[in-house]
TrEMBL record:
<comment type="similarity">
    <text>Belongs to the dus family.</text>
</comment>
<keyword id="KW-0285">Flavoprotein</keyword>
<dbReference type="GO" id="GO:0050660">
    <property type="term" value="F:flavin adenine dinucleotide binding"/>
</dbReference>
<feature type="binding site">
    <location>
        <begin position="31"/>
        <end position="33"/>
    </location>
    <ligand>
        <name>FMN</name>
    </ligand>
</feature>
<dbReference type="InterPro" id="IPR035587">
    <property type="entry name" value="DUS-like_FMN-bd"/>
</dbReference>
<dbReference type="GO" id="GO:0102267">
    <property type="term" value="F:tRNA-dihydrouridine20b synthase activity"/>
</dbReference>
<dbReference type="GO" id="GO:0102266">
    <property type="term" value="F:tRNA-dihydrouridine20a synthase activity"/>
</dbReference>
<keyword id="KW-0547">Nucleotide-binding</keyword>
<dbReference type="InterPro" id="IPR013785">
    <property type="entry name" value="Aldolase_TIM"/>
</dbReference>
<keyword id="KW-0819">tRNA processing</keyword>
<protein>
    <recommendedName>
        <fullName>tRNA-dihydrouridine synthase</fullName>
        <ecNumber>1.3.1.-</ecNumber>
    </recommendedName>
</protein>
<feature type="binding site">
    <location>
        <position position="184"/>
    </location>
    <ligand>
        <name>FMN</name>
    </ligand>
</feature>
<feature type="domain" description="DUS-like FMN-binding">
    <location>
        <begin position="29"/>
        <end position="292"/>
    </location>
</feature>
<feature type="binding site">
    <location>
        <begin position="238"/>
        <end position="239"/>
    </location>
    <ligand>
        <name>FMN</name>
    </ligand>
</feature>
<dbReference type="InterPro" id="IPR018517">
    <property type="entry name" value="tRNA_hU_synthase_CS"/>
</dbReference>
<comment type="function">
    <text>Catalyzes the synthesis of dihydrouridine, a modified base found in the D-loop of most tRNAs.</text>
</comment>
<feature type="binding site">
    <location>
        <position position="85"/>
    </location>
    <ligand>
        <name>FMN</name>
    </ligand>
</feature>
Amino acid sequence: MIGDITETEECQRKDPMDLFHSGQVVKICAPMVRYSKLAFRTLVRKYSCDLCYTPMIVAADFVRSAKARDNEFTTNKGDHPLIVQFAAREAQVLSDAARIICPFADGIDLNCGCPQRWAMAEGYGACLINKPELVKDMVRHVRNQIDNPKFSVSIKIRIHGDLKRTVDLCQKAEAAGVSWITVHGRSVEERHQPVHYDAIKTIKQSMSIPIVANGDIKTLKDAENVHHLTEADGIMVARGLLANPALFAGYEETPFKCIQDWVDIALEHGTPFTCFHHHLMYMMERITSKQEKKIFNVLSSTSAVLDYLSDHYGV
């Protein structure tokens, strides 16, 4: 649901590019299906996260259906800077989606990295890394059709086996006016193999726009190491933030204060029980025993979860 956002609030919007010019490494919450929704974005912003992405939204559905827009997108005036990630395969459809979202977000991102079969079968996600001309066309189209020069247009990619192809893709996107590029340092086929941070560094050295590194970052120390290895301008984290939403603030594991904050935020936002519970299961993974997990993970109502947290942790 697109909330009431006044023109004044729109004018107060920050240019997300300013983050990349601050001299600090930009700390970013990744787009995560089901998880990087408004309540979770509100939580990580409390713990030093600079920039948040929505879960991936299929642009064609978003443009076609008001119901899809209401289901897929919620925001509020504290939810900035915010990047809305779209899956798209046609320049005009992506531009239409960008035009609808423009008053409520700070930029859009084109997903060129999702390796899931359904996405690739539909022509979305990681198959786009093999269509550099189409990516270039989509970026240019959005750039030409959105009047606000502060509205960012970024892409998130995976790498090719032959890195020259990835550099070529990135340079084409840069020529079309892309704001920054996030690189997940694995190929489409790779899942749990080590991340190729050297490849991200090669891409960074070939470009003059900001590059964001993504893949296997579990702690703030990891983030600092990856920054040194890749020279990336930003660090994007997915699963690491699910396990510890306070990661960017330097906590080694989820502090109880963060669990309390999640309970407060989730209840205030009316977060559905399954999502509320799943986030807690991720957050408490490292701080609960096997026995505790057996009990906690099968609780089936908000009140049961709240009673458990109160009895065992004083939350």
